[in-house]
Amino acid sequence: MPRSPKRTLAVSVAVGLALSATACTPAEPSRPDPTEVVVEYLEAIAAGDASTARELDADAIGDPQLPDVDADTLRTDAVLAGAQRIENVTVDPADQTTGDEDTRNVSFQYELAGKQERSVLSVMWNTEEGEWQLSSSLTSALMVSAEVSRIEMKFVSFEVPGATVTQVDDPEESTMSFLVYPAVYSVTADIDPATLVDPTAGVTQQVAIDLAVQPAASFQVTQLP
């Protein structure tokens, strides 16, 4: 039986509409390389550009919400530029990252003071911004204290190139730790050298930020400041 002209027209129109709808449906754009933000972050730290690093890890750090943690004083361009910074940074290729579609773990390594460090940063896909963002950071919490014993100690004022930290006398009002980026910091404590258990040790310590251990500059004294 010959096909009805009306039926043929209806089928053609339906096919045309379907093809038109398919053509008008925007395809999701391909996502950028998830390692790019990690490379930018590590290169900023290596260059002493704390401002850029802070922009990149702002969401990862958020608000520490702890009154005894200072997230700002030592994360500055002046402090990072005055420290011995990381170098020889390498980041694993994107095809070696792990995780699901929206969260990836990016491995990297760098050298700090002649020591190789290897770790992982997590990145998360932000659909609204259309970009990968850090969901973890490379900050560590630095503590500076004078200690008579393990139970008799006090957080003390100190200096690093680029910043001076002043602690209050009330232990309950003192800041326990200060977020820092990986580097080697020269920490000079505000204590009387005559109170040092070992006077030859001096009141300055070189503190290398080891990602596996909470960094600390601890000065052994005969009496607290």
Main attributes of the structure:
single chain, 225 residues, alpha+beta, five-stranded antiparallel beta sheet, 15 strands, elongated
What does this structure look like?
There is one protein chain. The chain is of the alpha+beta class and 225 residues long. The protein has helices at 5-24, 36-47, 50-61, 77-81, and strands at 69-70, 84-85, 87-91, 98-99, 103-112, 115-126, 131-134, 140-147, 153-155, 158-160, 163-165, 177-180, 183-189, 204-208, 216-220. Strands 1, 8, 9, 12 and 15 form a five-stranded mixed sheet that branches. Strands 2, 10, 11, 13 and 14 form a five-stranded antiparallel sheet that branches. Strand 8 and strand 9 form a beta hairpin. Helix 2 (36-47) packs across helix 3 (50-61). It is elongated. Mean pLDDT is 87; it is low at 5-27.
What's the layout of helices and strands?
Blueprint: H1 5-24, H2 36-47, H3 50-61, E1 69-70, H4 77-81, E2 84-85, E3 87-91, E4 98-99, E5 103-112, E6 115-126, E7 131-134, E8 140-147, E9 153-155, E10 158-160, E11 163-165, E12 177-180, E13 183-189, E14 204-208, E15 216-220
Parallel strand pairs: 1-12, 8-15
Antiparallel strand pairs: 2-13, 3-5, 4-5, 5-6, 6-7, 8-9, 8-12, 10-11, 10-13, 13-14
